[in-house]
């Protein structure tokens, strides 16, 4: 029986740990910590309130918006169970990305990109559990047009997706040049 348990532990470790797992998970950890530290500072130290709008630059305001949904407020969930469900989805997606990190990542760009997405998703999920929604603070605008309000986790997720897209185009071009 101990050999079977040891064998199962090795299979689980192989499922969740690969050659670039350390890099990706370190990026995720740093991303999540920076995001949470920024949110704590904005709320607890700076004291921004949900009604505040502070002009920083002609194109950037600080404001506190609690996003109860996902991107752009879609699928808004005002109750605690809805927030828990969205947080559970973020944690499940992060676990799936961790498995991808362990099993399918062959270079640093993919590892960093997945780490950024994992860290951002976990940072926003923590907000849902602790604040009842995702805390967003940065509002970009120009010529009377306001984009959505975002946070550091959102920037990390977008940067991670851009990295994944870049890598997919780069690797497909390499494959096409080899087959030509």
Form type: globular
How many domains? The number is 1
Structural class: alpha+beta
The strands making up the biggest β-sheet line up spatially as 1-2-3-4
Largest sheet: 4 strands, antiparallel
Number of strands: 4
Q: What are the low-pLDDT stretches, counting only 5+ consecutive residues below 50?
A: none
How would you describe this protein?
About 65% of the residues lie in helices and about 15% in strands. The protein has about 180 residues and is α+β, with helices and mostly antiparallel strands. It has helices at about 1-15, 20-45, 80-105, 110-130, 150-180, and strands spanning about 55, 60-65, 135-140, 145-150. It is globular, with a radius of gyration of 19 Å. It has a 4-stranded antiparallel β-sheet.
Short structural description:
The chain has 180 residues and is α+β, with helices and mostly antiparallel strands.
List the helices and strands and how they pair.
Elements: H1 2-16, H2 21-45, E1 53-57, E2 60-67, H3 80-104, H4 108-131, E3 134-142, E4 145-150, H5 152-179
Antiparallel strand pairs: 1-2, 2-3, 3-4
Helix pairs in contact: 2-4, 3-4, 4-5
Q: Keywords for this structure?
A:
180 residues, alpha+beta, 4-stranded antiparallel beta sheet, 5 helices, 4 strands
């Amino acid at each position: 029986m101990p050999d079977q348990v040891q064998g199962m532990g090795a299979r689980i470790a192989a499922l969740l740990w690969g050659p670039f797992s350390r890099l990706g998970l370190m990026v995720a950890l740093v991303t999540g910590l920076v995001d949470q530290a920024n949110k704590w500072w904005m709320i607890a130290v700076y004291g921004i309130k949900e009604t505040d709008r502070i002009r920083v630059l002609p194109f950037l305001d600080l404001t506190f918006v609690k996003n109860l949904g996902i991107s752009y407020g879609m699928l808004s969930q005002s109750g605690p169970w809805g927030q828990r469900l969205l947080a559970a989805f973020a944690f499940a997606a992060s676990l799936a990305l961790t498995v991808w990190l362990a099993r399918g990542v062959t270079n640093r760009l993919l590892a960093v990109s997945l780490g950024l997405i994992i860290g951002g998703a976990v940072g926003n999920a923590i907000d849902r559990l602790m604040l009842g929604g995702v805390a967003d603070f940065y509002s970009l605008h120009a010529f009377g047009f306001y984009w959505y309000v975002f946070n550091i986790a959102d920037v990390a997720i977008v940067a991670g997706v851009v990295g994944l897209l870049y890598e997919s185009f780069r690797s497909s071009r390499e494959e096409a040049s080899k087959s030509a």
